[in-house]
Structures are given as C-alpha cells and as structure tokens.
Amino acid sequence: MSAWQLANLHVAYRSGPPWRPTQHDVLRGASLSVAAGERIGLIGASGAGKTTLIRAGLGLVPHDRGQVHLLGEDTAGWSARRWRASRHHAQLLFQSPRAMLHPTMPLARLLRESARLHRPEESAGKAVAEVLEAVGLRGRDHARAHELSGGERRRAGIARLLLAKPRLVVADELTAGLDASLKAEIVELLLDRVGPECAVVLVSHDLPLLTWSVDRIAVVDGGQVVESCDPAALASADRHPATRKLARDAGLEDA
Ligand SMILES: Nc1ncnc2c1ncn2[C@@H]1O[C@H](COP(=O)(O)OP(=O)(O)O)[C@@H](O)[C@H]1O
Ligand SMILES: [Mg+2]
Prior knowledge:
Rossmann fold, binds magnesium ion
C-alpha cells in the first residue's frame, strides 16, 4: 500500500499589490511516492521547495495542480475538517523545536491534550506515561519548554506524535542545530519508536546523517523531485547534476 503519493504538484506563492501581483512558481510538477513503512530522505538546496512540497502534501499549503493521495485516499476536494482528521494518522514534526511545545504548559499536560484528541478511548495519563517512557523522558512531566534541552525538546515532539500512532511521519529539519551524535540519536529514536509499518520522510540537508538511516533518497531541485535512488548510489556518475553537487558538498563523491 502506498502511504503518500504526490503527483505533479504545482504551487505558486503570490505577492505584491492586487493590481500588480507577482507570482513565484515554487513547485513545478513535483512527484514523490512513499510506500507503507518506507523511510525516505528528502534533500535539496535551501529554497529548492522541500518544505513547500511536504506542506502541500499534507494539506497545509494549497496546490494549483496535481494530486495527493494520503494513506490510500484521494484528497481531492477534502475540507479543512477532513484534513484535520487525517492528522490522526499523518503527522508533521515541525522544523522549529519551539513550535512543538507550548512555552509555559508543563509537558505532561500538553501531551494529555494530544492523548485525549488521538486516543479518546484510553486513559490519557497512562498513554502519556507510556510515550514519555518510550522517548526517555520518564519523570519529566512537569518540565516546561525552556527547561528542556534541544535534544529533549525533539524527544518531546516525538512523544507527542507517538500518541497519534501515526502511519506517516514527515519531519522537516528535525535535527537542525543539534550536534552530530545527538542528531543520530534523535533520528534513530524516531525511526525505532514509530515502528516498522509507519512510513517516514526525513527532510534534511544533512546528507551523511540520511545515508545510513533511510531506504531511499529523493532530491528536490527547482521545485521538482529530480532523483530518487538508493543512498549507496548517491555518488555514482550517472546521477542528476543536483544530486552530484549535494554528494560532492557532503564529501561523498568518489575520488
Ligand atoms: N509562504 C511563502 N510565501 C512566499 N514565498 C515562499 C513562502 N514559503 C516559501 N517561499 C519561497 O519558496 C521557495 C521554496 O521554499 P521552501 O519550500 O521553504 O524551500 P526549502 O524547504 O527547500 O528550503 C523559496 O524561494 C522561498 O523563499
Ligand atoms: Mg525547508
């Protein structure tokens, strides 16, 4: 089964005064297909359109053309309410760790709200204790955002998405700003805790980090997905020029 299918997506941002609008074409026919349980690394230069692609695919940015299938369903014509309902199964982990957590609300209270939303039939307290344990934050119930380290905030974000028992997780620059060993730890934690049936898309420009953690790398360039290949084949000579540049910049290219 396909977890997520983005076909020929076009997105343009419009700005300027109504009498002289300017249009910035950001996605120009981007396609990406993610199978159930598959782990994909989405890479590309800054401004290539990665964030727009995943946001359009989760109904957070409207697209002008193209199709989105989410967890086996065609999303054409979905209402805002239907999209919200899809978040029980398809979760976005935000780029900014600050956006993941309320500034003053204690962690456990925040998680209990998510638990009531996603698991109304279970005891919220029990579900929260379970996910805090799963991410290594047992006993941190009363911590507020500013009392958590960068790594702990990512763990808290993972705890929150686990409450939804997701089948698709999309993480945008999850590890930006963390040091190298912590990055690996957080990615490993996420991939392990969501379970093998959950598809995961990791958006990152940290190519070395992705190469060991995903099944496939997709490269975004100029608003299109220009490459989709095995991480081991990234440096091979017949890759797209954008892929070769990313591989070279990461020091992966063969001598
Ligand atoms: N809300 C927005 N309004 C206008 N332009 C935007 C908006 N979001 C992104 N852009 C522009 O779209 C392009 C792609 O951005 P983005 O999808 O964030 O790329 P990436 O995540 O690959 O860095 C950039 O040129 C950016 O400036
Ligand atoms: Mg981005």
